[in-house]
Amino acid sequence: MAYWYNVDTKQVESDDTRSQNAEVMGPYETEAEAAAAPATARANTEAWDEQDRKDREWESGDAGA
User: Which of the ends of the chain has fewer CB neighbours closer than 10 A, N or C?
Assistant: First the structure.
């Protein structure tokens, strides 16, 4: 069974209870992974932003880029 995080209701839903046409993140293998979806997404975004900053710095040769 897959689990989903509903960003509108801020609730975890399963395949059986998933809202139709809902804004959801997933699927996740466990309910715990689905519940952690916002924090996981935030951490991923921050890591990607940091990598983008490092890439710009490397490309420009400017440590302040």
Answer: N
Pairing type for strands 3-6 and 11-14 reads antiparallel
Q: What is the pLDDT of residue 20?
A: 80
For residues 60 and 52, give the distance between their C-alpha atoms in angstroms, rounded to a whole number: 12
What are the tens digits of pLDDT across the range 15-60?
Answer: 999 988 779 999 999 999 999 999 999 999 999 999 999 999 998 8
**How far apart, in whole angstroms, are the C-alpha atoms of residue 46 and residue 36?**
16
Residue 23, classed as helix, strand or coil, is coil
Encoding tokens for residue 26?
């997933």
Which residue do the tokens 């801020």 mark?
Answer: 10
Token digits of residue 19: 């809202």
Tokens coding 4: 């989903």
